[in-house]
UniProtKB/TrEMBL annotation:
This is Uncharacterized protein. Residues 1-27 are annotated as: Disordered.
Amino acid sequence: MDRNAQKQHIPEVMEKGMQHAHGITHEEYVNDLDKKIEVEKAREEDYRKNKELQKQLNNNIPK
């Protein structure tokens, strides 16, 4: 079976989230390797920034 035959139903909230956060549809994400790599790099950078912020906040909490 090819990819199109296995097309999955993506919940509307997930589709909207992908569109809002990355400006692409889930179908584009699945079918375009360059866009997928771009999204994953952005997610990784966001994760890294949030971990650094968490570390800074934890260091500022009095013990």
